[in-house]
Each structure stands twice: as C-alpha cells, then as structure tokens.
Amino acid sequence: MKKKVFSMIAARLLVMGVSLLIVSSAVFFATTMLPGDTAAILLGQAATPEAVEGLRKAMHLDDPALLRYGHWMLGMLTGDFGKSYANSMPIATLIGGRLANTLKLAAVTSMFSVPLSLVLGIAAAMMRGSLFDRIVTFCSIGLVSVPEFLVATTAVLIFSVYLGWFPALAFTNEIHSFGELLRVFAMPVIALTSVISAQMVRMTRAAVVETLSTPYAEMALLKGASWKRIVLRHALPNALGPIVNAMALSLSYLLGGVIIVETIFNYPGIAKLMVDAVATRDLPLIQTCAMIFCLGFLTLMAMADIIAILANPRLR
Amino acid sequence: MTTTTLLAKRRRKLHIRFSAVGMLGLAVILFWAVVSIAAPWIIPHPVGTIVDYDYFGPVSSKFWMGTDYLGRDIFSRVLMGARYTVGISLAAVTISCTAGVLLGMIAAVSGGLLDGLLSRFLDALNTIPSQLFGLVVVAAVGSSIPVLILTMAVIFIPGAFRFSRALAVNINAMDFVTVARIRGEGVVYLVVSEILPNIMGPVLADLGLRFVFIVLLLSGLSFLGLGVQPPYADWGAMVRENLGGLAFGAPAVIFPCLAIASLTIGVNLLIDNLPKKIRDRSDA
User: Fold this and answer.
1) Which pLDDT belongs to residue A154?
2) What is the pLDDT of residues A39-62, one digit of tens each?
C-alpha cells in the first residue's frame, strides 16, 4: 500500500507544478497586457521617439509575447529575475533581504498562533456549548468576518495608542536581542496572529467536533470512558490529520494578512515591496513577487493535502 | 405529484424560523440595503464639500460621526460609501455566483470531458490567492469600478463552481433526475427544472458567504489604495484616507470600520443561523 501513498503524493506534486505553470503564465500575460507602451511610460513625457525605440530594443519589448514568456521563465528557474524598471537594480538584490524579513515575520507569527489556536480550538470543542465555547466561537467569527486591516488598526488602537505597550512602527535593523525582537515584532505579530488564529481555531474546533460525533467516540462514551479520556485518547489522535491539514491551510491566510500588515506597520517585507511596485507599475518586480507568493501558497496547500494523505490510515 | 410538492413546499415555509440572532443579522442587512438605495436623499451634507473648518472633528449634533481629514461630513460619506461597498460587491457576487453555479450544474449534469476540463481549469485558477490576483490585475489595467467588479467576479467563480458542482453531483444521482433523463430531457431542462430548485437553499447561503469575502477583498484593496478611486470612496478607502487620525482615535477612522464590520458580521450571523434545512440540504 506504500506505493499508493507515493503515487498519490506524486500526483499532488504534479498538480502543484501544473498549477504553478498556469499561474505563472497568468501573471506574465496579465502584466504584459498593460495599456500603453512600457518604454514610453518609463522615459516620461520628454522622451524622444529614438530613445523610446532604443529602450524598447534593449528591453526586448518587440519580441513576440511567447518568446518573452520563455525567456522570463528560464530566468526565473536559473535565479535571474531581471531588473527593476524603477531603479534598474537587479530584482534578486531588492528581494533578498525583504524576503528574509517576511519569512521572519511569518515564522514568529506561526510560533505564537499555532499553539494558541490548538489550545483554544481543542478546548472549545471539548467544552462544546459552554460559555467558553460560545465566547471563542463568537470572537473567531467576528475576527474572520472583518477585513484584515480592521483587525490590525484595532490592535494598534488598543496596544499602541491606548495602552502604549508597543511601538506602532517596525525597524528591523535595530534588533540586537531576542527581547528587542519581540518588542519590534509585537504589533505586526499580534495583528497577524489575530487574523490567522481565528481561522485555525474554527477549523481545529470543527475537526475535533467532527471526530467526537463518530460512532467510535459514541462507543467510548457508552463504554463509560470519561470525557477527558474520550477526547484525548480516542478523538484527538484521529483528528490529528484534519487538524494539521487545517493548520497548513490557515497558514496560507498569512499571505492576505501579510500584505495589509506590512503596509500598515511600514514593515520592510516583500509584500510591502509588491504593493509599492504596483503603485509605480514596476512590472518585473510585481511578477517576481507574485510568483514567490504563489509558490509559497501552493507549497502550503500541497503540504496540507500531503499531510491529509499521510494521516489517513486507510491508505497505509 | 404537483400537489405533494406544493404541500411540501408550504410545510417547509411554515417551518422556517429564524433565531433572534439571525433576525438581527437580517435587520442589519436590510438597513444597509435601504441606506445604499436611499443615500442621495438622506445625506445631511453633500459628500464632496468641506463643511467643517476643523479636520478630524469630534462627534457633534451637527456632524453625527465627526468630520474627516479635510473637514467633510463622515456620516454622509459613510451613507454614500454604502453604495460603493454594497453595490460593487453585490454586482460581483451576482456575476460570479450565476456563472459559477451555472457552470457547476452543467459540469455535473454533462460529466465526462467537459466536467474534467472545467474542474481542472477552475481549480488551477483557485490556487491564485485572491488578494494577489486583485493586486496583479489592478497593476496591469488600473483600477475602475467595472474592472473591480469583473476582477472580483472572476476571483470567486471557482469557489461557487466547486460548491454547486458538489451539490449538483449528489442531486444528479437521484432517481427523479434519472427518470427525467430517460424521458429524453436536455441539459437545459435538467439544470433549470431538476437540479437548480433542489440546490437553491445552500447556493443562496453560499452566495451570502461569498458576498462577505468580496466585501472583505474590496475593502482590503481600497485600503491599499488600489480599489475605489477618489473622488468616490467606499468604506475601505475612507479608512485609508483617514488613517492619519488613527493615532488619536478619530471617529473618522472608527465609523467606516464599524460600518464594514456591521455589514459582514450581519451577513455571517444570518447565514450561520439559517435553519439547517436551508443551509445543508445536501445532508438531508
């Protein structure tokens, strides 16, 4: 049966590769279908037609779109992301440090949100229908159903403005110790954690509640096992797959959160870079950032699926 | 046969009871619906004109929600903003759900190659994160209201498709559909008269949830400055304009936020408290 698991995982990875290809072509062609001539936009109003023509040649803008797509994909695969339109710096150097910043933010956020939402979700499912459960459910529904920027601004309002605990702005180059790291990261992390945890708590709770309603959980109840034993010994091991699956899925919500949170807190991450690039219409930069995000997103989704496959004992 | 279905229908109607919380959600939705239709006639001040010499003015009897960063009346702007937020989202959700549900039912009824191709293609589209999709499209073609509506409609078609296809596949396997098919009915009849009436409840509930997603996405884009463009402002754009007032808790930031939250939470409350019969007909 091992073979079946392997082939399912391989199929899942294949799907991921195909999706990536489709996504890349969508990103490339959406950004090349810009109305107006890129070279003319770059050179501004005072450009002579000769200069525009020269730049078009230099940027290979006259080549057919499919050829440029091929070139671009090849560059992507070999780590050559091209040059930014705005300041003609190589994109790899622009992105390098910023990607690390964003990953740091994501890592610290998951460090807090995963245990938090596990505890809250499982506890809420155990005490289903209690006041605690209702409060947790209400809060998570509330957080899920408002935009990310609202959560972030509310967090700033509470923790920075009224309580004055944390600085509202982030400066990552001034970090020397773990304590300082926490202080600087506090606001973005609180905001992101609220956004993500709400999802995770809901999904974790649903997974445990579902296992608790299965016949074997009922059997354990009829057998006279204590509630704690039913949850911890019977339900939880079986809910583990769905829970980890839910975790990976909710982490993909990091993406939406990260775009807003980095903008609000002026955090020098890759999402902020991308939003700025959209404002200046810096296409190569947008394309690269979009691809990085899609890759991250697809990896998390594939991981969620693979975990679900591995956690299913019927396949082993 | 017709009398029995009529009876069943009537019985179902009688049994629909909204809980108090669900009624509250419904009331909030109706309130914003009325506001967005009647806004031009009920706003106390014109939205574009500067009515207060002070900026970020406090709540007063003249300006019910204070004034914004230019001294414009927030109350009037929130009322007018409802038009953009509710209107754009409603248009987008109508397009995406109509297209998604139709495609989903057709895929389920016809099966085979068409089903496979549609499913694969829309699944791939679904793997593009919605915010990213919005950002890239806005970067490419610029932001205008028709572009926003179409972009968001396209983003949420795969979800609607998946949902309705899953429901329709279940219905498709039932005897009355098989009977209709043996009778020689075409795809159009099967979709419109056999499948659609049986998945209508969950589809409408799903439409509500998708509406919330679209409101969230639209507000997020507007907040980033990539959604509704000045001089028009939806609620997300209003939060962005007045973000400078956040540091001292200006009502100009808080009220648009409350407006968004009330609408999205209202819809969620209504959907969550719908009678189980409407929500999960597929399980019944």
Assistant:
1) 81
2) 666 666 666 777 777 777 766 666
Q: Spell out the alpha helix ranges (H) of chain A.
A: 2-32, 38-43, 49-58, 65-77, 91-126, 131-144, 148-155, 178-212, 215-223, 227-229, 236-251, 254-264, 270-280, 283-311
CA distance B139 to A204: 36
In angstroms, the CA A182 to CA A184 distance is 6
In chain A, what residues touch B132 (CB-CB under 8 Å)? 255, 290, 293-294, 297
Chain B residues within an 8 Å CB radius of A294: 127-129, 132
Q: Measured between beta carbons, which residues in chain A are less than 8 angstroms from residue B219? A: 147, 149-150
A311 CA: distance to closest CA in chain B (Å): 23
Mean pLDDT value across residues A287-313: 80
At residue B1 the predicted structure's pLDDT band, cuts being 50, 70 and 90, is: very low
Q: Do A294 and B128 touch (CB under 8 A)?
A: yes
Using the predicted structure, report yes or no on whether residue B282 has a pLDDT greater than 60: no
* pLDDT value of position A103: 85
Residue B112 zone, left/alpha/beta (φ > 0; ψ -120 to 50; rest): left
Inter-chain CB proximity B140 and A33 less than 8 Å: yes
Closest listed residue to residue A194, CA positions, set A250, A127, A126: A250
Give pLDDT tens digits for A73-95. Answer: 777 777 777 777 767 777 777 78
**DSSP sequence for B59-104:** P-SSSTT-B-TTS-BHHHHHHHHHHHHHHHHHHHHHHHHHHHHHHH
Give the CA count within 13 Å in the CB-facing half-sphere of B271. Answer: 19
Q: What digits encode the pLDDT tens for the residues A186-207?
A: 778 888 888 888 888 888 888 8
- Disruptive mutation site among A150, A157, A163, A303 for chain B (greatest number of B CBs within 10 Å): A150
Facing residue for B268 by CB, picked from A145, A150, A297: A145
- Among the partner residues A26, A146, A149, nearest to B128 by beta-carbon distance: A26
A161 contacts in B (CB within 8 Å)?
Answer: 246-249
CB contact under 8 A, B253 and A255: no
In order of their start, the domains of chain B are 2-277 (1.10.3720.10)
For the entire predicted model, the pTM comes to: 0.80
Q: What pLDDT does B99 receive?
A: 92
Please tell me which residue of chain A has the smallest CA distance to B217. Answer: A147
The pLDDT-based confidence of B95 (bands split at 50, 70, 90) is very high
Establish if B16 touches chain A: CB-CB under 8 angstroms.
no
Q: Is A294 in contact with B127 (Cβ distance < 8 A)?
A: yes
